[in-house]
Amino acid sequence: MSTRPRAALVATTVALSLAVGGCAGEGPRSSSPDAAPAPPPSGTPEPGGAVGTPAPPALPQVSADLAGDLQAVLDARSAAVREADRDAFLAGLVRSPDLRTTEGGYFANITQLPLAAYSSRLVPESLVRSRDAYWGVVELKLQLTPYDVVPVRSVDRYRFSPTARGGFRISSTTDREWEAANLGVQQPWDTEPVLVREGAGVLGVFDSADRREAAGIVASVERGIADVAARVPFTEWGSRAVVYALSDPRFLDSFEDLPGGDPEALDGVAFTVPAGTDDTTIASTRFALSPDLLPVAAARRVDPDLDRLVRHELVHVAVGERDDEVPLWLSEGLAEWVSVQALPPEDRVVPEEALRAARRGIRSMPADDSFNDDDAEVHYALAWWVCEWLTRTYGPDAPWTVLEAFTLRPGDQPRAVVRDLLGFSVDALARRGADLMATTYAEPTTAPTTPAPSVTPPTTTPPAG
Ligand SMILES: [Zn+2]
């Protein structure tokens, strides 16, 4: 099964509510050599940690502005990333070969990305002393240009260890227990080596893909953007998209509500990236494709199924937040309907199971909670043919008019919205869409005036969500 309700897949980048309003991390960073040793910072002692024990180990001389000193370490690290200065980046780390390997990998990832913003800020009240070092929560801001409309905030926890000369270096960026409790969805560049490839309006992020496969995916998305931009009447998405095609399932696995719970069963899925947990602003809508599609992406011939799937996901990107409050039959119907428009009618296939259901008679519109159930391919095809019925009855803009009717009445009962707009029930709309599907794909008894569309053989996978 390949379908996915976009609106339900909201990436929670972090699960920690940050008290950043009271941060002193951007205050003056004087570090007079005469300054008294810093008082132990307030904070929750680590289990088994040294804070509060009768005789903490002696700390080296540190300035009164401990938070400022640690912030300076972070500022140098961020500047090194922005300037792609590997030596400067590694200079901010202690001389641990393991740390330099893992952090060098992160540097190689992050500096492939087109960064409009990259900065990190210490949350001073999070500082916890551990022997002679300090653990602190770090808020990271990262904005992909021109793909994110605002920076995306995430958090991590670093350990800062004193140097012989009185400064600090980062001695760990990994605290598995804390991360398990506080990190939500991590981006692929945070967790594994990635290959980043850009095209016209496309940022592709890959792990196992070779260069031809990555180029094939980027080219498919370029074609899709050109098609979808001409058909979807919204411009806010800027005809741009970020696509992931990852063999490592951890990224999709980290979403709590994947249908069926199996990321490896999905062909494609669009997801939103919020600016932060305490921020409802959406920085961008991105989509992920199954790594199973990489071989066809690398083939010389354009794969029509891949391109159709890509167009489907791009419709979700282009529609963005407009479909957050609409039923799945409409958001998925729009994506399916637009995705087939580039195909000649005879190539617009519906699954055999959907056609059988339409011929038997469909009585009602599928509800959101059952849309992605075992009959999902029937539901997706029905949703598409509802949009077809709307265009043939009211004109080519009709599906968008229905979408607008929902966005103008957020929170209203979908049944009421449809009845008020069309004058009949949403179930009657489903029956009309199903009837149109059944008659369109009927065995022709006389020579058809237009080429008859075909039906997929039973083994064909349904179009993806
Ligand atoms: Zn979809």
Question: What report would you give on this structure?
Answer:
The protein is α/β, with parallel strands linked by helices and 465 residues long. It contains 16 helices and twelve strands. The strands form three sheets. Strands 1, 2, 3, 4 and 5 form a five-stranded antiparallel beta sheet that branches. A five-stranded mixed beta sheet has the order 6-7-8-10-9.
Q: Report the order of strands and helices.
A: HHHEEEEEHHEEHEHEEHHHEHHHHHHE
Cα Rg: 26 Å
Q: Describe the global form.
A: elongated
Overall pLDDT level = 84
The quaternary state of the protein chains shown equals single chain
Give short descriptive properties of this protein.
Nuclear Transport Factor 2, Chain: A, 5-stranded antiparallel β-sheet, 5-stranded mixed β-sheet, disordered N terminus, disordered C terminus, binds zinc ion
Explain briefly what this protein structure is.
The chain has helices at residues 66-82, 86-91, 97-110, 176-182, 188-191, 211-231, 250-253, 294-298, 304-319, 328-341, 352-360, 368-371, 376-394, 398-408, 414-422, 426-440; strands at residues 115-122, 128-130, 133-144, 152-162, 168-172, 195-199, 202-206, 241-245, 268-276, 279-289, 350-351, 455-456. With 465 residues, it is an alpha/beta fold.
Topology (SSEs and partners):
Blueprint: H1 66-82, H2 86-91, H3 97-110, E1 115-122, E2 128-130, E3 133-144, E4 152-162, E5 168-172, H4 176-182, H5 188-191, E6 195-199, E7 202-206, H6 211-231, E8 241-245, H7 250-253, E9 268-276, E10 279-289, H8 294-298, H9 304-319, H10 328-341, E11 350-351, H11 352-360, H12 368-371, H13 376-394, H14 398-408, H15 414-422, H16 426-440, E12 455-456
